[in-house]
């Protein structure tokens, strides 16, 4: 069993001397032992690797010491299903860099309803979510980049503010390359004093988020002072989905108000986020409106309810048009064949736009934005070649639900 310096604290040592349980590259994850490398993803050479620790549900401060006594290294760190935490940490031979970040871990379990009361005891996840790293009882770290090296890891349970994300495939933690979403990139742009709990999922609508008990899961742990970013519209507008369709003029605003009211009732702060555009250019190189009246409907609800709005719809238009019809496809999944879902580049750009929206607001959340982020102008975004984001070792050709 891993050595515990105190309750809810785990320490591991991968190289050299020092505190913590020594771990060798041959130790595959064992749920009884409670730690180890994921099968087939142990360290070796310069390939990415994943290390997991069995922990209860909650928020954890992870402290990593990166570097190598024998060589230069460049390491990026992701958590759970590819949430970017640290990007491109470079260390010289014999030099080490210690950094901290916050990881949210959750299971599908819900507090059981009282006898004879409606409800459920678990989130109703879909078949594609079964076995994913963001719905299990362990905290998983991925070390990637050109020459990933880690010397030590400490995991410690903490209580601090949480940023919850509710939304669809453009927000969720996409589990495999080449897809990615802004929810799994924004984690790298926040200070290590706030957690991100990304409950978004591909194909979700406001109705299904409620009937699938995903909203219940958020409400079961949310507390005063937390924040919830709410982005729905991509799938809610599909009239071909009769069970979950909502009308832009009537039921869409009504369901938005349900989410707002439930969050506010618990003392937390709701924030509405308009859906990013699909990549649909006209002959003049301008993005056409692929979301109909839904973005405007959300803007009106935000104004009427006094809720902060992040207009990612407008920001994404500026970004795509600045990149242009030739370059913009390089920000999307499946080599640009997918005009809805992003790759790592597009996901980073959308996350940076969301952060810009937070900074332009009066939200207390902006105190948790990292101060060392480079300036960002959606009308002059960095191009794909400037964003050398590390890829994860797991790939999938499965199209996200709801496409």
TrEMBL record:
SUPFAM superfamilies: Galactose-binding domain-like, SGNH hydrolase. Residues 374-403 are annotated as: Disordered. It holds the Pfam family Lipase_GDSL_2. It comes from the Bacteria. The keyword Hydrolase applies. Keywords: Hydrolase. Residues 167-346 form the SGNH hydrolase-type esterase domain. One of its GO terms (molecular function) is hydrolase activity, acting on ester bonds. Belongs to the 'GDSL' lipolytic enzyme family. PANTHER family: PUTATIVE (AFU_ORTHOLOGUE AFUA_2G17250)-RELATED, RHAMNOGALACTURONAN ACETYLESTERASE. This is Rhamnogalacturonan acetylesterase. It comes from Niveispirillum lacus. The lineage of its organism: Bacteria, Pseudomonadati, Pseudomonadota, Alphaproteobacteria, Rhodospirillales.
